[in-house]
Design a protein that fits this description.
This protein is of the alpha+beta class. The chain is 12% helix and 28% strand. It contains two helices and nine strands. The chain starts with a strand and ends in a 13-residue tail after the last strand.
Length: 161
């Protein structure tokens, strides 16, 4: 059995390390004194996808107590739920958003083969409840451009004097 450690802050498991590579916290043992894994963690959960066990269905990464997660996912189980501690979670590096981005939908949407004006109308109908983006023609095949409107600061708050 491998010796695992976990970060008390990030809840991710690590092998053979003393400090978390994500936040720098000192790692704690993933097991109790008798070597039994602790139930509270970040878990990658799978189940068999068919009777013969030839395929595996990914049920995602879930954080919490193994009992609560097992109960929540019980209807998704084929034979059993397989829990593995997540050994690393790479935190997404969030960069400053752009003012626009080209967007496509999958081929099955039918939008890739539409005329540009029809494709723009489709996307406008799709996001009709959003007024913070303007849709324009793209020079990329089957795409439109989402032009994000700059959000104005809210005026009239207690610090606005």
């Amino acid at each position: 059995m491998n010796k695992l450690f976990r970060c008390p802050k990030c809840k991710t498991a690590k092998k053979d390390a003393k400090f978390c590579s994500e936040c720098g916290e000192k790692l704690e043992s993933f097991s109790d004194a008798s070597g039994i894994w602790k139930p509270e963690a970040m878990w990658r959960v799978t189940t068999q996808g068919d009777e013969e066990g030839r395929t595996t269905k990914q049920l995602g990464v879930h954080e919490g107590h193994i009992v609560d997660i097992a109960h929540k996912l019980s209807a998704e189980s084929f034979y059993d739920l397989c829990f593995e501690p997540v050994l690393a979670v790479k935190k997404a590096e969030i960069r400053e958003p752009r003012s626009s981005v080209h967007v496509t939908l999958g081929y099955d949407s039918g939008t890739t083969t539409m005329e540009s004006s029809a494709r723009q109308a489709y996307f406008r109908a799709m996001i009709k409840d959003r007024d913070d983006v303007k849709i324009t023609e793209s020079n990329y095949y089957g795409a439109v451009v989402f032009n994000f409107k700059k959000k104005e600061p809210v005026r009239g708050g207690p610090n606005d004097r």
